[in-house]
């Protein structure tokens, strides 16, 4: 529940306020980009071990923060699995709280999904065998502990999961992990005097936890040494709530090649790309001019609509964020060796989109946000179709193999909507053709105006249901989540 709703409301001035700003001195640059260890299931006999644990992490010199991680103190290794394989993951819980590990974007049956229905108690182990049957994609894994997802992810329980296949390997895309194929897990976090703190209060309930520092793979403003060639960036927004609007400091164009569900059919040349919590994108960037350049984001802004008014809330990230904020800086080596690719494949992946003529059901979901609920404890503030998440209630029943259209809209603000166990296509946005940026196989999409999603349900969820929810993790934990069976 909200931390004392009445008291928080009394401080309602915070809504527009600057009170979220905290100043502290940060070094200009933390060092080189940390590259999480790569665990390729094929190098380990299809067995991977993950241990959720508590630890201490030094984000800023001389300042230690209490954190959580997998096989380490913050975040986890990058897991690489191959299409066609069956991979057994042994997840042990060394925390003092319940946890789960959800494979966000992985298409596996409900009982393997890592939702709160597969809770791992402290000292216990969960050992799912995951059948990998989907095209190459950049996925991620994170805690989905019941009511504790936001806090556990914030503390560090997240990592990347790559699916690869022969089709992808045949394209000649940059794929030397940590060299020209970089994992970029972006998260904002709140630091006070160089130590990680957990924001709480009314703004957190409304807007989700946001922070004054952007971390990449757990480091503040790191530098990545890259070859002077085309480099592939696997961008993952692992923030609790924030949406980034990413571009390069010199305005250079880049090629968008993949979304949550995998590669696009053709690359798309862009100069900026928005990425909401839970979303992923793969891009190719040309560094052959040898010039240092930064990946930057527009300032964090969210707009809340209340009583017919729009209130823009600007979250200040640091003392100098009049303009863009730096996410990380690339320092290319001049193209001396022939290492790395320089040409862009024209066609990427082909994919069968379900035929809208085969649709057997339509459903309507509204992500409800009632600000009155902050005052009146009888009214639930964050729900879907006015129902707060209940683990014992199945909200929707879907037939295995069915193609459906889900029309989803949001209230009061834009919400990143995520569905487990499927990848979908955007059919329309606000009754019109979808945006250029809506294309591709998706699992998380921003909804505000109604969006129609075309979905085929190929994974069974009979032993345990799948979830759908807002990926602002605080909204999810507070009840903006539902579940469905697939039988
Ligand atoms: Cu990434 Cu149900 O979440
Ligand atoms: Cu998910
Ligand atoms: Cu939301």
Number of helices in the DSSP assignment: 5
Distance between the termini: 33 Å
What structural class results from the helix and strand content? mainly beta
Mean pLDDT equals: 90
List low-pLDDT spans.
Answer: 1-25
Shape: globular
Q: What is Rg?
A: 21 Å
What would the CATH topology of the largest domain be? Immunoglobulin-like
CATH architecture level-2 label of the largest domain: Sandwich
Enzyme class: oxidoreductase
GO molecular function: copper ion binding; oxidoreductase activity
Keywords: Metal-binding, Oxidoreductase
Domain Plastocyanin-like: 54-167, 372-486
Structure description:
- This protein is mostly beta strands and 487 residues long.
- It folds into 3 domains: 17-165, Sandwich (Immunoglobulin-like), CATH 2.60.40.420; 181-332, Immunoglobulin-like, CATH 2.60.40.420; 356-486, Cupredoxins -  blue copper proteins (Immunoglobulin-like), CATH 2.60.40.
- Helix content is 6%, strand content 44%.
- The chain is built from 5 helices and 35 strands.
- The protein has helices at residues 5-10, 149-155, 166-169, 202-207, 473-477, and strands at 38-40, 47-60, 63-70, 78-82, 86-93, 102-104, 125-126, 129-131, 137-142, 158-164, 181-192, 195-197, 213-216, 219-220, 223-226, 230-237, 244-248, 254-259, 262-270, 272-275, 280-286, 293-297, 300-306, 309-315, 325-332, 359-369, 382-384, 396-398, 403-410, 415-419, 424-429, 444-447, 451-456, 461-470, 481-486.
- Strands 11, 12, 13, 14, 16, 18, 19 and 21 form an 8-stranded mixed beta sheet that branches.
- Strand 23 and strand 24 form a beta hairpin.
- It is globular and about 60 Å long.
- The chain starts with a helix and ends with a strand.
- Residues 1-25 have low confidence and may be disordered.
- The structure holds CU-O-CU linkage (C2O) and copper (II) ion (2 copies).
- One copper (II) ion is lined by residues 102, 104, 418, 420.
